[in-house]
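Working notes for the structural subgroup meeting. M.R. asked for a predicted model of this chain before we commit to crystallization trials. I am recording the input and output together here so anyone reviewing the notebook later can reproduce the run.

Input as submitted:
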Amino acid sequence: MFFVLLGVNSPATKRLKKIAALGCKVTLRIVWRSDMAIEWTEDLATGVSRIDAQHQELFRRINSLLEACNKGKGKEEVIPVVKFLEDYVVTHFAEEEKQMIHFNYPEYEHHKAEHLKFMENFSKVKDHLKADSIGLTAVIMTNQLVIDWLRSHIRRIDRELGSFLKTKPLA
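Returned structure, recorded in C-alpha cell form:
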C-alpha cells in the first residue's frame, strides 16, 4: 500500500485505479485547488433560458462537490449530488428532448444518444456506489462523469441545440 497525492483526472490517478481494480490496495486522496471550480461562462449558454438555468444549477452542484473534496468531505457530498443527478437526467433531458421533437431538430437522434450514454455511465456510477459504498473511487467516478459531460456535451452539443431553438418561436 502507498499514498499518493494527485488530481482526479491525472494519468497517474487513472493508472492507480487500474492497479486497484487488479486487487491491489491503493489509497487515493483527491485534492482540489480553489481555482479548480467549474465556472459558468457565457460561451456555455445555449440562449434558451430554461436550459441555461438547469445547466447553471448543475454547475453549482458540481462545484459544491468539488469544494467538499477540497475540504476532505467529498464522501459526504456524493450522495446529494447523485440524488440531484437522478432528478436532473429525468427533467433536464426530457425538457431538451421535448423541444427537439416539437421543433423537429435534425440532430435529435444523435443528441438523444448522448443522453442515453450519460444515463448508462451514470447508472454504472450508481451501481458502484451500491456495491462498494462511498469511497474515493465513487467520488472520482462522479466527478469524472459530470466534468466530462460539462466539457463536451454542454459546450458543444447543447450549444448547437440552443442555436437551433433560438430560431424557433417561444423556444
